[in-house]
Design a protein that fits this description.
3-stranded mixed sheet
Length: 193
């Protein structure tokens, strides 16, 4: 072996290089860069999967709430057809009472009135509410106008007569009230035109 190799080199300050400070922030060698990119890609995929999971969880929660609401609606309005059939019974009893009242048969009237009270009580118990708009303003959401009648004493668009009462089931319209609506009388100048 040569002598130079066995002896430690002397320290020469001029030959010692000082690394610049920015050399510590230089890019890592190629293998580390690939690893960093792979980690960043994995983190991005993990975040995407997390977002998909959260969306699926929210959709499932919305589905569960909709299903629960549908079940509640089915319980609440499930006997709607039955309720509509009861309305014809109520109409018939009311007509019978009106006819018997004019004829004077008091015991028949009292029996039918008692039956009608029981029927109305049962209807109210199950959420069926009567719509009787006599004297009220016409509301196309709850009333069906079957005729218009001129009137000087009743305000225009007011209900003059209720031909058939309407009914609601828990706030949902079962049948609109059939009514006759007032309108202002035609003036002579309007009638001639």
């Amino acid at each position: 072996m040569p002598e130079d190799a066995r002896q430690p080199a002397e320290h020469d300050p001029e030959k010692t290089a000082v690394l610049p400070e920015d050399s510590f922030t230089a890019e890592p060698p190629d293998g580390s860069e690939q690893l960093r990119l792979a980690v960043a890609g994995a983190e991005a995929r993990a975040e995407e999967q997390r977002n998909l999971y959260l969306r699926a969880l929210a959709e499932f929660d919305n589905f569960r709430k909709r299903a629960q609401r549908d079940v509640e609606q089915a319980h609440k309005y499930g006997f709607e057809r039955f309720a509509q059939d009861l309305l014809a019974v109520a109409d018939s009893l009311e007509a019978g009472i009106a006819l018997a009242t004019s004829g004077g048969d008091r015991s028949l009237v009292e029996g039918q009135q008692a039956t009608l009270r029981l029927l109305r009580s049962a209807m109210e118990k199950h959420g069926i509410r009567e719509i009787d708009p006599a004297g009220a303003r016409f509301d196309p959401e709850h009333h069906e106008a079957i005729a218009v009648q001129e009137s000087e004493t009743v305000e225009p668009d007011a209900v003059v007569q209720v031909v058939q009462k309407g009914y609601q089931l828990h706030g949902r319209l079962l049948r609109p009230a059939r009514v006759i609506v007032a309108r202002a009388p035609l003036t002579k100048s309007r009638a001639d035109a």
